[in-house]
């Protein structure tokens, strides 16, 4: 009896190079609109000024986060958590309504891949020219084109890394440091790290990031239902596929509207065939919709063989108005209601936020002592944070015990966005408070703006 034949199962298929064809149309224009909007915001925002400083700056050294007219501190971390929650709900809502529109139009991976593909086309040529160039042996011409492409990619990546670091270190200071070759080690690390990530993801890995690295592709189906707008191929109209038949030769047995030109596959940035149905690799960029509509225009056939539609719309032949009516379904209503509540709550919290913080820290080295005239004294340290961009003079007041008084100066001045520790001493008459701990309140009020007012509780110790 012969030995069984060994079967080799490959766990990972070698990557096949994808050469997306350039396309034009409504969704291509929309995609480039988002490229411009996102990149103008990303590259331009660090250069904006507000109150003579960078408008958007996350200064980790001083632990201050400047967001236009607002200054946040590490104690305001809750607002970052709320922002992440809002972003997550926005993603859930957008996905429930229109599938992976985030991936197809505004995801940084998609945006930078579009930019890098545009550079590649300008230097190496159209799809067929790029495919031919890669098959050719190395020559001076090929080396020159490849070198120019990678230098252009590298320039975009380095500027991207520089801009990213400019959100954490003032970008004008960074520009001076670049000109004087005075970059610090951390600046070098993060500029090169982010540049390498941009260059590698958008230049080399491309669709591999969407297929294998991005977790969203794996769990997106849990947010889809039969009324979610997705890129669909109308198989009833398109099948059976076949070559284009002239009108005078068409019969009742002529095939479907799909002429099997493969344009939808050639323009796909992830290299899938949308005619095989919804696949997790589809990023919803609608490039195949533009390509198919262009072909339908050329053969004088109705558009929409590939289009945004829902599974229910294809099965039940719903009209566009019926599709829109089914958009406002229970899942979408719940996402919208929760999102509105969170946004309203966060907005109210920011509006009512007092830009003044104070912590009262009792000196544990002096639990409470008797001083001259039999007075009882406690020592505290006030950690005061002026989070506004104006200097303020604050008045300190205390309450909670009838004879409680402040011995140290009652006013303190803080410069804009300054944090300072202020020692204070409180005294009360002997017998005015019971022995042990007594609850008191320390208040801080701005002299020039009484609305800036905070109050904290503390404990006054009377020795037993």
From TrEMBL:
* InterPro entries attached to this UniProt entry: 4Fe4S_Fe-S-bd, 4Fe4S_Fe_S_CS, Cyt_c_oxidase_cbb3_FixG, Electron_Trans/Redox, FixG_C, Ig-like_fold
Query: Is-annotated flag, keyword Iron-sulfur?
Result: yes
Keyword Lipoprotein appears in the UniProt entry: no
Which UniProt keywords are present, listed alphabetically? 4Fe-4S, Electron transport, Iron, Iron-sulfur, Membrane, Metal-binding, Transmembrane, Transmembrane helix, Transport
Q: Which domain of life is it from?
A: Bacteria
Q: Which residues cross the membrane?
A: 30-50, 77-98, 151-168, 188-205, 334-352
Q: Which residues form a coiled coil?
A: none
Which residues are in the 4Fe-4S ferredoxin-type domain? Answer: 248-277
In Swiss-Prot or TrEMBL terms, this protein is called Cytochrome c oxidase accessory protein CcoG
Native source species: Duganella zoogloeoides
